[in-house]
Write a structure and sequence with these properties.
- This protein is an alpha/beta fold.
- The protein folds into two domains: 5-35 and 297-402, Aspartate Aminotransferase, domain 1, CATH 3.90.1150.10; 39-294, Type I PLP-dependent aspartate aminotransferase-like (Major domain) (Aspartate Aminotransferase, domain 2), CATH 3.40.640.
- 39% of the residues lie in helices and 15% in strands.
- The chain is built from 13 helices and 15 strands.
- It has helices spanning 36-47, 59-79, 93-108, 127-136, 153-159, 182-191, 211-214, 239-244, 279-295, 297-316, 342-351, 364-370, 386-402; strands at 24-25, 87-90, 114-118, 139-143, 164-170, 195-199, 218-222, 233-237, 255-257, 264-265, 321-323, 332-337, 354-355, 357-359, 375-379.
- It has a seven-stranded mixed sheet, with helices on both faces. Strands 11-12-15-14 form a four-stranded antiparallel sheet, with helices on one face. Strands 1-13 form a two-stranded parallel sheet.
- Bound molecules: pyridoxal-5'-phosphate (PLP).
Length: 404
């Protein structure tokens, strides 16, 4: 295969001890492998510098508090947030969306209000809204997709009404890799007075994100998809929105003063971080952000775009392959092979040491719209190269030979 400039490896494979030679790991959209600096930060956090945060008066705890808060400041800078106080550490995107649904939506929306989602959302950006809507008596509307499976913003312009209070959309789809025109979505949402939440799980690992430039109101992502640890993620919210939100979980750390007569709460972000947080997770996330920014998100974006273009071009040469999503998808290619269940595709690829995901990808409403039960999905990361694309294509050719 001819290797174009952008398909040159980023030369970081050696940073990833869990990727053995000759294994094509193409499941980064599920979770990214971890580079050595992240593993080292976690090892150091537990093995050298460990103590609790925000409570201890001894030096070790004060130092750990500084490190934990430095991670928050790093996440704020990474997202272009106005202040570190706008960064709430959560377990991941799922928890971040549930927090906004249970705190912001339940306190701000009234019976009859409407929430707008799209057909391609991850279950994490559907079910929390269903739970909240049930509590409120609100309604959920669903944006259709364009022919190439992008969120249809023309339809959004027509569907939005003054009863819509919230629009929650994937910045990048975890199935099709389609990239939302977030600025236009924000403009449309704000035009009717609705807030915009962006699910940035698949965007932050593969493109620069600036919440100010996107003009959204809430942004969530998971650390583990950004080469960081599991169990930690970020909810960014505009300061004035977070300020007005009630706590959603109670416990230590989130209070100002507790008595049986009346308890008052800490200002954000502490108000939303009840209990002992994932201290070392935050340190790992800090290292992960440093890592991707040292490579450069523009470079990662260009690299993955080249791998996607090559994958789509090569797979489209195989007659029985059906490709999903737009041509310019970000880092993710979903496909099917006529007459073959995606699980069989993934199993046969595994025999050739190519790891892809097969299934509904936690997006059953999207599967319904595509008219399939499942897809096969290859997703790229900084460690992938043209060799991995070649291994994938050879594996799919083998699938077609086996199934005649
Ligand atoms: C687009 C998108 N949203 C939300 C999630 C949920 O992330 P997590 O399970 O880390 O909370 C995922 C994970 O697959 C995702 O890809």
């Amino acid at each position: 295969m001819q290797v174009t400039a952008d398909m040159r490896p980023l030369d970081v494979l050696a940073d990833f001890p869990a990727i053995p030679s000759g294994w094509a790991y193409l499941d980064t959209a599920a979770t990214a492998q971890k580079p050595r600096p992240v593993i080292d930060a976690i090892t150091r956090g537990y093995g050298e510098t460990y103590a609790t945060v925000h409570r201890g008066v001894y030096q070790r705890s004060a130092d750990m508090t500084l490190a934990y808060e430095a991670a928050r400041a790093r996440a704020a800078k990474f997202l272009g947030a106005g202040s570190a106080d706008e960064i709430v550490f959560v377990r991941g995107a799922t928890e971040g969306i549930n927090l906004v649904a249970q705190s912001w939506a339940v306190s701000q929306l009234r019976a009859g209000d409407r929430i707008l989602l799209s057909q391609l959302e991850h279950h994490s950006n559907i079910v929390p809204w269903q739970l909240a809507a049930e509590r409120i008596g609100a309604h959920i509307d669903v944006l259709p997709l364009t022919e190439d499976q992008r969120i249809d913003l023309d339809a959004m312009a027509e569907m939005l009404t003054s009863r819509h209070r919230l629009v929650a959309l994937a910045h990048v789809s975890n199935v099709t890799g389609s990239v939302l025109d977030a600025r236009r979505a924000a403009e449309l949402a704000h035009g009717v007075g609705a807030k915009l939440l962006l699910d940035g799980c698949q965007a932050v690992p593969r493109m620069p994100v600036d919440v100010g430039a996107l003009d959204c109101d809430f942004y969530v992502f998971s650390g583990h998809k950004l080469y960081g640890p599991t169990g930690v993620g970020v909810l960014w919210g505009r300061a004035e929105l977070l300020d007005a939100m009630p706590p959603w979980q109670g416990g230590g750390s989130m209070i100002d003063k507790v008595s049986f007569e009346r308890t008052t709460y800490a200002p954000p972000p502490g108000r939303f971080e009840a209990g002992t947080p994932h201290i070392v997770g935050a340190l790992g996330l800090h290292a992960a952000i440093d890592y991707v920014e040292a490579i450069g998100l523009d470079r990662i974006d260009a690299h993955e775009a080249a791998l996607v273009a090559e994958t789509r071009a090569r797979l489209s040469e195989i007659n029985s392959v059906r490709l999903f999503g737009p041509e310019n998808s970000a880092g993710i290619v979903s496909f099917g092979v006529e007459g073959v269940h995606p699980h069989d595709i993934a199993t046969i690829l595994d025999e050739s040491r190519v790891a892809i995901r097969a299934g509904h990808h936690c997006a059953q409403p999207l599967m319904e719209a595509l008219g399939v039960e499942a897809t096969a999905r290859a997703s790229f990361g900084v460690y992938n190269s043209a060799d991995d694309v070649a291994a994938l294509v050879q594996g799919v050719e083998r699938v077609t030979r086996i199934f005649g």
